[in-house]
Amino acid sequence: MKRIALMVARLFYIAPIWFYYVCKYGNSDRYTEEQRYHLLHGMMRRINRAGRVTIDAYGMDKLPKEEGYIMFPNHQGLFDTLALFESHEKPFSAVVKKEMEHVFLVKQIIKLIQAQLMDRDDVRQSLQVIKQVAEEVKAGRRYVIFAEGTRSRNGNELLEFKAGTFKSAMMAKCPIVPVALIDAFKAFDTNSIKKITVKIHYMEPILYEEYKDMKSTEIAAEVKRRIEEKIKECLEN
Question: What is the pTM of this model?
Answer without folding.
Answer: 0.94
